[in-house]
């Protein structure tokens, strides 16, 4: 409990000097604002989850009823399906945050307490600092595009002469008469600009930040393995580990320095493997949903923005919506690709170490086992079928363009 208080659960990740761990401060802030941060009180999380799900389901009910009534009007149908995708993401991502709250809490605690500091090798600290700033810039761009789109989507109906709702809805009662109109309008604005943005972006950013921390740890671990067998470096790094309160101190006993060093590295690799598997269990359902919503959002928003009967304001809004989906898809695939590349090259770094200079044959056998375990790379997938990497990103864009051309030909006919 003392460690949890000190390492970010009360103070916050923004206070960390570690650039990799500090990347968790923004998702922590977002999810705390809607009371779904895994480390918050379970009572608040349960209440917030129930209220959020009911609000989203109420809006989806009205939107689907409207689409069913006017399904022959393709413009209305496509717009309804386009704005439905963020609501579906909100519903599923809030549910996953609730369902995997314990697993996420354990991973966040491990990152805060057990992960090695990114300045373990001081020369690489600037590299991690630039990665942190680049990732933060991409996150801010995505957040701003989502905020601009949702604000425009919420305020645009006020500029029309007739009463309209942000989400075109149909209910058993007349939702355009007072006071139903005002209440439902406020509910739509709340879900669109506040709940959807914070839940979707909060979930995305916490997963991306966890993966970024894993990438940093694999980079440090590979450098440590490269020093294995070099007794001077091993003694130096062992001394560093002894000074770190987050690393298990194996004590100054009669064991060989190389053996102590190897035990530390193997234990840390086991921690990274366990964290990567937990991340995959959290993200694989949302990964499949993300690919589907990206295909739908990019295809339909691109199609509607190229039609001749669409106004300038709608084209701008759909363009921002399209850019947001592209950034969201690219961020998932980029971090998944980087995690796979860094983890898959670990066995090569182990083999490139000076293990052959060690006289103890038992340690040579142990390094073979460590090398064998390192040959299984860490990865995140969509539905445990499609790996989230650059190749999947390209295939999604190709499939999206195919659907775009098919839809254009069908509408023209």
From TrEMBL:
Bilayer-crossing regions: 47-68, 136-159, 179-200, 282-303, 315-335
Gene Ontology CC: one annotated term: plasma membrane
UniProt entry tagged with the keyword Transit peptide: no
A UniProt-annotated Pfam family: 7tm_6
Record's subcellular location: Cell membrane
Keywords: Cell membrane, Membrane, Olfaction, Receptor, Sensory transduction, Transducer, Transmembrane, Transmembrane helix
A single GO BP: signal transduction
Xref: InterPro entries: 7tm6_olfct_rcpt (IPR004117)
Top-level taxon of the source organism: Eukaryota
Membrane disposition: Multi-pass membrane protein
Keyword Magnesium carried by entry: no
GO molecular function: odorant binding; olfactory receptor activity
Protein name (Swiss-Prot/TrEMBL): Odorant receptor 4
Native organism: Pyrrhalta maculicollis
Lineage: Eukaryota, Metazoa, Ecdysozoa, Arthropoda, Hexapoda
């Amino acid at each position: 409990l003392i460690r949890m208080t000190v390492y970010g659960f009360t103070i916050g990740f923004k206070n960390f000097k570690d650039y990799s761990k500090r990347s968790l401060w923004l998702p922590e802030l977002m999810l705390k604002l809607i009371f779904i941060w895994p480390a918050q009180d379970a009572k608040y999380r349960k209440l917030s989850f129930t209220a959020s799900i009911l609000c989203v389901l109420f809006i989806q009910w009205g939107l689907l009823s409207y689409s069913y009534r006017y399904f022959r009007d393709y413009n209305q149908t496509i717009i309804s399906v386009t704005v439905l995708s963020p609501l579906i993401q909100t519903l599923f991502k809030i549910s996953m945050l609730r369902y995997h709250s314990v697993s996420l809490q354990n991973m966040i605690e491990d990152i805060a307490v057990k992960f090695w500091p990114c300045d373990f090798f001081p020369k690489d600290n600037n590299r991690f600092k630039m990665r942190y700033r680049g990732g933060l810039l991409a996150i801010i761009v995505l957040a701003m595009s989502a905020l601009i789109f949702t604000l425009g989507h919420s305020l645009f109906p006020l500029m029309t002469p007739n009463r309209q709702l942000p989400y075109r809805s149909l209910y058993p009662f007349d939702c355009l008469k007072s006071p139903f109109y005002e209440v439902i309008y406020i509910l739509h604005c709340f879900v669109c600009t506040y709940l959807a943005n914070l839940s979707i972006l909060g979930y995305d950013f916490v997963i991306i930040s966890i993966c970024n921390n894993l990438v940093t740890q694999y980079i440090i671990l590979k450098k440590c393995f490269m020093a294995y067998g070099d007794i001077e470096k091993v003694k130096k790094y062992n001394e560093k580990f002894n000074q770190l309160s987050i690393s298990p101190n194996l004590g100054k006993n009669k064991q060989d320095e190389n053996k102590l060093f190897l035990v530390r590295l193997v234990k840390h690799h086991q921690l990274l493997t366990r964290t990567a598997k937990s991340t995959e269990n959290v993200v694989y359902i949302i990964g499949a949903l993300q690919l589907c919503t990206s295909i739908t959002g990019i295809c339909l928003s691109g199609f509607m923005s190229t039609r001749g009967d669409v106004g300038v304001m709608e084209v701008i809004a759909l363009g921002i919506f399209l850019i947001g989906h592209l950034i969201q898809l690219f961020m998932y695939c980029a971090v998944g690709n980087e995690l796979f590349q860094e983890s898959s090259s670990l066995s090569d770094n182990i083999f490139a170490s000076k293990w052959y200079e060690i006289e103890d044959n038992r340690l040579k056998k142990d390094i073979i086992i460590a090398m064998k375990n390192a040959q299984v790379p860490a990865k995140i997938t969509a539905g445990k079928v499609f790996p989230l990497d650059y190749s999947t990103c390209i295939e999604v864009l190709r499939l999206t363009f195919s659907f775009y051309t098919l839809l254009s030909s069908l509408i023209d006919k």
